[in-house]
Write a structure and sequence with these properties.
Blueprint: H1 21-24, H2 27-50, H3 60-86
């Protein structure tokens, strides 16, 4: 598998970007950014609408169940749009 690791900005370098033209000139980087945005939108929806920040559950199993339920609700919300896009 050919994968290029993500490179973040080191904490000490406040103004110097670590992503230069060598990384961003590839189509893989643009595709990665689109996929990342799509994933971040889902997690953002789950955090704001699904409400795990104010969970009333104790324990990993219950919280995992609540997160899975919120992710399923997000998929149901997206389903009509996906059906119309595929035709």
């Amino acid at each position: 598998m050919r994968a290029t690791p993500r490179r973040g900005k080191p904490p000490s370098a406040s103004g110097s970007p670590t992503l230069d033209g060598r990384m961003t000139r590839h189509g893989r980087h643009a595709a990665s950014q689109r996929i990342r945005k799509r994933i971040e939108e889902a997690f953002g929806w789950i955090r704001t609408i699904g409400g795990p920040e104010k969970t009333h559950f104790r324990g990993h199993d219950c919280f995992e169940w609540a997160f899975t339920f919120a992710a399923a609700a997000h998929n149901l919300v997206r389903l009509p749009k996906l059906i119309t896009e595929t035709g």
